[in-house]
Amino acid sequence: MDPITNHTTDNQKTKANIKLATLNIKGRTSASLGQNQISKWIVINQEMRDQRIGVLCVQETHLCPEHQSQIDSLYACRLLVLNSSDPSRPGSSAGVAFILNKEVTNTSSARLHIIIPGRAIILSISWHDNKIINILNVYAPNDLNGHRDFWNTIQTELGNSWQNHQQILVQNEQTEISMRRHI
User: Fold this and answer.
1) In Å, what is the CA distance from 179 to each residue of 112, 119, 157?
2) Model confidence over 131-181: pLDDT tens digits?
3) Which residues is 83 bridged to in the sheet?
4) Which of 37, 51, 77, 141 is the most exposed place for a label (fewest CB within 10 A)?
């Protein structure tokens, strides 16, 4: 039985379910895929299409503004990339992003809230039946001594704002989570 389907204001169908995935891409390049500055994004685009992933939460993006512009120019018809880079080393450290598949997710109301640049972000999107879903994407620091302050900052920032919405926490504390293809 198919999930219930609604139509959004821009006439795109949405379903009562959404496929959510997370991936630590460990930087934007891969020796096995070539040294192109955005080589991993070819695989990300293909997997999101083939697996019909609605929202992919990505850690360790290492994206500079020029790399994000390249990605946007190549994949804007299918993907919406909402990225937060490490402010001190955007091309070589941390970075978190949400990648939305425009073919299966209504992106018109997507909002990104940056809690800790390059480390913690929230995506708010309209979901089925005009509900809002909030997804927190976290890439915790390697330094365990900083974890208490890190999580306190997130908790303070969130406050009570999540009480009236559906919430999902996605985090990566140096644990590899991957798709079918290794990138």
Assistant:
1) 24, 21, 31
2) 788 889 999 888 888 888 988 888 888 875 555 555 665 555 443 333 333
3) 97
4) 77
Q: Phi/psi class of residue 41: alpha, beta or left (left: φ > 0; alpha: ψ in -120 to 50)? A: alpha
69: Cβ contacts below 8 Å, ≥ 6 apart: none
Residue 143: count of CB within 10 angstroms of its CB? 8
CA quadruple 69, 52, 174, 154: dihedral sign: positive
Q: Which contacts of 31-35 are long-range, i.e. CB under 8 A and separated by 24 or more positions?
A: 33/183
Give the pLDDT confidence of 86-101 residue by residue, as tens digits: 888 777 778 899 999 9
Q: How many CA atoms lie within 13 A of 131 on its CB side?
A: 16
Report angle CA 84, 86, 89 to the nearest 5 degrees. Answer: 140
Looking up tokens 């389907």 gives: 5
If DSSP codes are grouped into helix, strand and coil, which group holds residue 56? strand
Q: What is the pLDDT of residues 6-31, one digit of tens each?
A: 434 455 555 667 889 998 888 766 55
Distance, CA of 40 to CA of 30 (rounded, Å): 7
